[in-house]
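Researcher: I'm preparing a figure for a lab meeting and need a structural model of a single chain. I don't have an experimental structure, so a prediction will have to do for now. The sequence is pasted below. Please return the structure as tokens so I can convert it later.
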Amino acid sequence: MNKLLLGDNLEVLKTLESENVDLIYLDPPFFSNRNYEIIWGDAGEIRSFQDQWSGGIEYYIAWLKERVEEMYRVLKSTGSIFLHCDWHANAEIKVFILNRIFGEQNFKGEIVWQRHNAHNDAKKKLAVLKDTIWYYSKSKTITYHPVYSAYEQKYIQEAYKHKDEKGQYRLDNLANPSRMNPQGLYDYKGYKPPVNGWRCALTTLQKWDEEGLIHFPKNPAGRLAFKRYLDENKGNLCGDIWADIPNVQAHAKERIGYPTQKPEALLERIIKMASNQHEVVLDPFVGSGTTVVVAERLQRHWIGIDQSEQAVRVSRMRLQQQREELLREVPDFTARTLL
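Model: Understood. Here is the structure written out token by token.
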């Protein structure tokens, strides 16, 4: 594992073992009839970005479908695939490729990634702000971990406005929310129970008090509350609309100038959501190497394929830079790395 493979991904995929990969992310050339900027100029890169398909949408779908068929073969029965595309062909990709290969019953979701906000051109037409990431599995049994987005600063300031030696916290109601709880009808240190009683037994409240998790208002007529600390909360649960991850900005440290480079935060969310440590992540259009860089940082095994020599070099360079940074930050990195 942990391989950067140079070549046409269709031919390379045919050499990989069946059912050996846990997660596939692919960001193929879009059917957008655009000429992307060629920044390296080698023949493989030009082929990779040549998305003006002379044969039309049928040719494009056929070209992509035979590659996805090989991806289906190498994917484990518990594995998932995330196919990144845009509006030019997302409907055709879903209907004629993913539904037919993976089956409609294994459709897990349509992730809408909002890449940027509307600019002045939105005054003249409906602006396109998003990409689509189709999410399918090979069977009903899959790896899935809920993922979270960070709280907005405004919400933190409004909700987590209390602070003690442990940090910022918000107050959570200890009142029983619906029917009366007879076990919760007790006084605690002079504080009367709410109408329906406390939502926990006395022993639980005492335990939380010993742990410093109970907020006591100065007014004895006030209501006890539970302290929920900011650093113990993961954030907001994510659904299928991801608007909190911006595209790679001009000033971003991770930016290398690759024309379709995706942000590391996007791949981090996908990899965390659909794989476990030491499982295998495959990117058959590795491009600038974002997937393999993030996979290694998250302690996954990885395989990256590209037909551009320079893309492979850049991916290797980013991997090496990340390893050097980890060596500086974590001296025993070599003892625990996947390499």
